[in-house]
Design a protein that fits this description.
By secondary structure, this protein is α/β, with parallel strands linked by helices. The protein has one domain: Glucose Oxidase, domain 1, CATH 3.50.30. The chain is built from 3 helices and 10 strands; from the N terminus they run βββββαβαβαβββ.
């Protein structure tokens, strides 16, 4: 099986969603300094890099990331070529993209891919519109992923997240799909098991 890591590497000083905590990675012990091992400390928001949103992220009292169904995050997935879209992905765009009936996991490869080559956060990324999220829910999609730090528009994050999370759809954000060819893949997405948390970093791998 060909394996493709579509996770964004976590590194100190990497850009994050505007307003999120910065990423700080530092060594607190080193062999070179005479310690018995190398030991690092990581301080960052759980929505940094490639991560999964839990329902409680936007729905008060809902479940945390540790309660999310693993079976939704492992299995056949479709990488959809949305690179030609410059507007947000609405219901009409979802229909035009030709997602087959019965598809349970959809990963949108969009023009956002080029944004990973920048050294700063860009608020003008392509996201799902509310009608696009509703269309995916109506199709029975269980997982939606996108190749930037939010599945929702920068200036209107709440409605899209509520539409997806309220329907039990898993949201995977911060994917790096530059090397992922559109088409069928096997998805392996395992977020860190953080009790009751609103999200968690994830290692996401595609295989075929």
């Amino acid at each position: 099986m060909e394996l493709l890591d579509v996770s964004v590497p976590i590194r100190s000083g990497m850009f994050v969603f505007d307003g999120d905590p910065p990423v700080r990675l530092e060594q607190v012990a080193t062999l070179a300094a005479g310690h018995h091992c190398n030991l690092s400390r990581l301080d960052f928001g759980v929505h940094s890099g490639t991560h999964v949103d839990a329902p409680v992220h936007f729905i008060d009292g809902a479940g945390g990331v540790d309660a999310m169904p693993l079976e939704a995050m492992i299995g056949p997935a479709l990488v959809v070529d949305a690179t030609g879209l410059r507007d947000h992905i609405d219901g009409e765009a979802v229909a035009r993209l030709g997602i087959p009936a019965g598809t349970e996991r959809v990963l949108f490869k969009s023009a956002n891919s080029r944004l990973w080559e920048l050294d700063h956060f860009s608020p003008g990324f392509v996201a799902l519109a509310v009608s696009g999220a509703q269309a995916l829910v109506a199709m029975g999609v269980r997982l939606v992923g996108i190749d930037y730090l939010s599945v929702a528009p920068f200036d209107a994050p709440v409605p899209v997240h509520e539409a997806l999370l309220g329907a039990g759809v898993v949201i995977v954000e911060g994917l790096d799909l530059r090397a992922a060819e559109p088409g069928r893949w096997e998805l392996f997405c395992l977020p860190a098991r953080i009790e009751g948390c609103d999200g968690a970093p994830a290692r996401v791998v595609l295989g075929r």
